[in-house]
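Lay summary

Proteins are chains of building blocks that fold into shapes. Our project writes down both the chain and a compact code for its shape. Here are two examples, one after the other.
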Amino acid sequence: MLQLLRLCEHLRVCPQGNTCCTQEMEDKFGQQSKQDFENLVDEMSHELRSTFVSRHQRFDEFFLELLENTERSLNEMFVRTYGKPYMQNSEVFENLFAELKRYYTGGNVNLEEMLNDFWSRLLERMFTLLNSQYVITEDYLECISKYTDQLKPFGDVPRKLKAQVTRAFIAARTFVQGLSVGREVAQRVSKVSSTPACMRALTKMLYCPFCQGMPAVKPCKNYCLNVMKGCLANQADLDPEWNQYIDAMLLVAQRLEGPFNIESVMEPIDVKISEAIMNMQDNSAQVSYRVFQGCGQPKPAGMTRSARGVSDVFNARFRPYSPEERPTTAAGTSLDRLVVDIKEKLKLSKKFWSNLPEAMCVEDRVTAGNASDEECWNGHTKGRYFPEVQKDGLTNQVNNPEVGVDITRPDTFIRQQIMALRVMTNKLKNAYNGNDIYFQDSSDEGSGSGSGSGCTEVCPTDMDGAATEAPVVKADRSGPVGYSAPLHAPSVALPTVLALSALAFHRQWR
């Protein structure tokens, strides 16, 4: 090899002197080093990207299937329990689940307002059903809705259920969106673009030994670290915000395991709503009396409707809750198992971007390793590398001996990703406290990115924004108020069997 060395070819990157390279070869090495670097970053970030892609998909599938299972279970139980009266009014419950799904998938839905609207609609239907000897008009129903808070026709169920559903759905949606943002940031940042100064430093480190007749000599580790810290200076600046984002994700994950567990809220929701219905039935005479006092006595409907008995209205075939009858576990797993898995993965991803140079400069990839300090390429020849290793981040590269870095010009693209993480972290902190903040409705833009989607860049945010401050989108109330079949007589006192069923099926709130 030595006899093939030629006198200086005026190379632009590699050391001057005896060399076996031409300028054309050096240019090709420059392009190859750029490709090698980009491929290495892609390889090193593959597991991180795969983690966020796969876990986002698994959580999203789980939550959507949980909603579908719960709706199917409620429908089956209510058909069996209440029969035709339920089937004639099933759109009230269909709208409830449609709005819950729309909220979860990124829709601009105020959960508290939506749930209040559900109970108002249910009250209207129940009141009409239980007072079928009267003509109940739209205006009369409007009057009834004004007395909902005073009457508390469904007992304490709406208040408890609203608290549980809102915080569970806020946590679930925010967590899945957090996974989506992490996925997008990881995918974008891993697509590095090398600066000319970085390309020169990479060429000098990776290929100049070939030009010096030392193809088997690998770079010294500290030399490699300085090159990579210079080339990845902007990526390292992502780390502080990335770590805060990961911490916030872990906090919400804890909520999903505990009081904000959407699985423990949704699975018995049919039982809880049925309990509220039976509470309304038990107190129907008192509720009707107070409504009549406030709204006046409605007009009689005639003998045909009033002659029917309460036993025709409600079918008392309800059976107490049985654990083995619950719907199949969503997505073949449980929320607890999903959370345990993702928590471990999230913890491992902390400090990923600042640790990237160290991960790349390992013996089996680039360098000669620590054991070969005297037998490695130092950028000029084979021997020890003396300059100290620079710290992480853009501002610490001002004196980088290997890569010329303009510390006054931060990478705009990386700054955008930092802002996306910051916005998501704020949302996660609010979700941890049970508060909702504005998520842009993907349907407004006509280009939604699927379930759990929303802003992945900068969105309007308010750290102190609570659920009650979110833009209100009321549920559709255009459905028919009347019924296709004749309505039946009022309930003055429920059959004993229904009351016993209510006692048997009452469960302690979680």
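And here is the second example, written the same way.
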Amino acid sequence: MTEDVQKHSVHTLVFRSLKRTHDMFVSDHAKSIAKDDQSHKLKLGVKLKADYSAVLHMPILKEVKDRVYQQPSSVQDLSYAQTGDDPEYLITGTHAYPSGPGLALTADTKVHRNPSEAGVHSMALALPPSQAKQEAIRTAASVTDIHRHIGGAERASALVRPVISGHLGWVRSIAVEPGNQWFVTGSADRTIKIWDLSSGKLKLSLTGHISTVRGVAVSHRSPYLFSCGEDKQVKCWDLEYNKVIRHYHGHLSAVYGLDLHPTIDVLVTCSRDATARVWDIRTKANAHTLTGHTNTVATVRCQAAEPQIITGSHDSTIRLWDLIAGKTRATLTNHKKSVRSVVLHPQQYTFASGSADNIKQWMFPDGNFIQNLSGHNAIINTLAVNSNGVLVSGADNGTIHLWDWRTGYNFQRIHAAVQPGSLDSESGIFACVFDSSESRLITAEADKTIKVYAEDNMATEESHPVNWKPEILKRKRF
């Protein structure tokens, strides 16, 4: 016996289905509760005191005085009123990010904006500094004076120029253009930024990568900028039109570094897929795939003489490559830990490699070992050297060591201070490079800033320990 099945129209069935769905989700238990103004003010006051108490006393510039946000009473109580201050300045909390001078925590600056013109001028990086500028710097206690006062002898000679802010993530790579007018940085915020070298002003931001930008390079032979990142992409940017004109496809994992050959139109990239690839810049052809490393290839460098390509890897080896044959010419196995950086001396036929165990110097063309530079007991991420024989090593713990290339003497140590509001762990040095004049050192750091160090022309022999060697005493300090 079959039961009669009640028939319904399609419209009725659809309506019933919608009603069941509505009844199921009508109570949105995941919806956040309404914001309570009093609780929000209290939370903001506590956060200001906990995170920004060190900078709440800083004055803002007069021209932005009219735009200062009228803080709630709970926050005003946390401000630090100082007797004897200029009444034209208003003591207030500064903008959490970017932490540039003159940026107040206002409704307008809660979102990221480029620094104001006044803020840029206050961050100006003059080279060489005028006598008036030096006198002005001496009127207030500098980072140098503070460190010397508290006994930080290893930091006392560091002349730190104003910090350049603008990235929203770790700054992982840096390159200076040949004309020494501007430099480029790549960051974990997936952007590439171009900065004016003399003023520190942001000139241009390039977007296109979808993950951390790990390497940038500016061509000496054409108006091209090359970049690579953890999104496996290698891009060629035309700086006349500010857009990508070529992609180089082939790597199977994150691309950690790149370098341009100085005399021919060849680009070399290295990757987490344990290979380095040689590209024809114009045709985008993959001329060689350099295989042999057994772990991530972290750094690559090119030179005109043989061997033309040098790679360092997390498998603790360095390989020297024959560019024509695309094969290994020599394998250096002296390091016991990952090799993250390799740098070539600009005038000598030598190079250095940095690892967590120590820094080693080598002689081309066969990679004959010269000497160890021991003492930088940290994971060394980057190396830079200039024509005067100043070797700089930057480490994961925020320390910078300066060495004499010939003797291997560590003549200065710097510990870069993190930005106010940053964690102490955010003090790593990811990249460093000398500008074309070789008188300024630019570092890319984990506190999302770029710092510029200049030679301290005021350093004298009396400021050095008495047991320093005569050839070191002649060296200008940073």
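What can we say about the second shape? The longest strand covers residues 171-176.
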